[in-house]
What we know:
Distance between the termini of chain A: 77 Å
Structural class of chain A: alpha/beta
Distance between the termini of chain B: 21 Å
Shape of chain B: flat
Number of helices of chain A: 20
Oligomer: heterodimer
Largest interface: A-B, 25 and 24 residues
Radius of gyration of chain A: 25 Å
Amino acid sequence: MAPRLIGWLLIAWLLCGCASAPATLAVTLRYALWDVNQVPAAEQQIAAFQRAHPHIRVSIELTPYEQYWTKLGTAARDGSGPDVFWMNGPNIGSYAAAGLLLPLEGWIAADGLDLSAYPAWLVDLYTLRGRTYAIPRDVDTIGLWYNKELFDAAGLAYPDATWDWARLREAAQALTDHERGVWGIAAPLVSQSGYYNTIYQSGGFVLSPDGTTSGFDREETIAGLRFWTDLIDAGLSPSHAQLVDTPPQTLFQSGKVAMLYDGSWQQRPLAQNEQIRAMVDVAPLPRGRERAVIAHGLGHAIAARTDRPEEAWAFVRYLGSREAAEILARDGAALPAYGETADLWVEANPTFNLQSLVDALDGAVPLPTSADAAVWWELERTHLTRAWTGEVSVEEAAALLAQEMNRVLAWEVLPR
Amino acid sequence: MSTAPEARRSGVALRRGLRDALWGYAMIAPLCLGLAALYLGPALAAAATSLGDAGRFGEGVWVGLANYRALLADVELLRAIANTARFVALTVPVSLVWGLATALLLHSRPRGVAVYRALYLLPALTMPAASALIWRWLLNGDYGLLNGVLGVLGLPTLRYLTDAEVAPYAIAAVATWSIVGPTALVLESGLRRIPRHYYEAARLDGASALARLRHITLPLLAPTLFFAAVVTTLLAAQTFDLVLIMVGPTNPALASTQTVLYRLYVEAIVLGRSGYAAAMGTAFIAMTMGLLAPLLWRYSRREFQHGHE
């Protein structure tokens, strides 16, 4: 009786021990991101990472972009946020200044990580005052997406690298058919995939290199804005009110708009849409006075208050490696920042002419941003809306915008 | 209790009174603790934040009443207050009248009254964000169902959500649509408390339906109407999700539709100015309470004296 009881107790104790031993060694990292299209690639990367590091588990926390920063900011403040998370240009300044990010240059040096694998401008974006706060993940550029069927019906040759603004306008003219409710191009009020590109193509700028002056009151910048308002005035694009009512992507995918400036991130959702993929392709942006394309890229950052910094660094280092980049490239959801994997991205996603998006990286303009970008972006929306609706002239709206933007820039605390 | 002899009052009655009072406090304690923790606490914390210039992540230095002074100079905010006032003026009367008409109809117990009641309640039970998205689609200027139907009938179509003149009315209409159901329900329960024999007596005296409405229904329904009016006003004043979803930041109609809480969202979340936004919120609470509290106080005392439930 007693030996039997002791025997059972021993077995029970052993089982409990077996169950808990790995659990006490296993570490769980929380990884936050915002794009549902990129979850499959992230899961593959995590699976590969977990095979190499069996004692680290990673759990994904997906939050739609609109709520991502609110949630992250609130949680990061009291240390209850994710350990590793996506970071972008507009937010790196304020997060770094608030001490919410772990500086990584110590680890980078200790592990001998070579950052030249990534575009220099992207590494710079995430390096402030000599401290590196994020490892680049991907790059994105802007392309001219067009509807092949509408081009064929109008007997026009597809857009290519020789196109300039005049050619674009001619094509838009030929493609616009008000009877059938079709416009040649969409001219929405968007910065990164819209007017920022044409501003730099005109030889203007949004923010001076030292980050202290707005470029909106310059003649060249205004010419870049007029590119869009002229299209609306000429009836080649839906009106601003129409584009606010119905998103330009919806119009484009429904065949109501023949051309659309949009980002490389649209590649995968479009390629997965059976009705659309055969009908659509992408070409380089037409040149203005100069050739320019806005480029940006996300990075992986570590929360300053994480209680697992070593494991978090192991994960971030893996995510920035060639192996992780190849997984991302094959998936197609994003173009990895790891330069040498670009060809893999193009080859693995033959649906569209992705080479034109990769080529745009040469001489691309990094997305203009500053610590208080959120404030002057809101100013852009307020002032340029009145220009897009025709309520005021572009010159007047741009002048007012520059004035207020300069005031905001003068108050900014964070020098680069 | 009032019939107890004088001699007993100082003894048993007093202890019983105390015990009743303690039970009373015990009963309301959970609610009060909840209110204190989830409403009063954060409200006081927000008031504290409003006295500093906290940015996106909470740190800030003391600035005293500077944020409140800035509120008075904020043109966008003043316009938002006007928009909110117009919104309340559009939504509350319409929903009260419509709610009353519906309540009277429901009260007359037609066949299938339960079905009608459920249909009227559905909008209020739907998530506000979901309703807003569906209405945004229905009211789409080019491809929306409403314009589609009007176009087929040869009637003029409007840009409901992007025309600065029309958008406030469109949003008020959607808000009214979602509020009418619960309003009707509340008013119907108020109608049920009116004794039937008043109506019978009035009918015997030859009073018309209109006269019965004017002299019996409305006066006796007044407390419930008042309650419905207060709740509807508060809800209408706090409109935010409809504006956020149906009207976006680059919408030409934003200037004429943005409400006080929408401005608060822009300041707090988009621009990251927590201190200023907290001042806006605290001022808003103070203003609302300042307007409603005297009314509620005066009315509740009057009710108490008249002995109505």
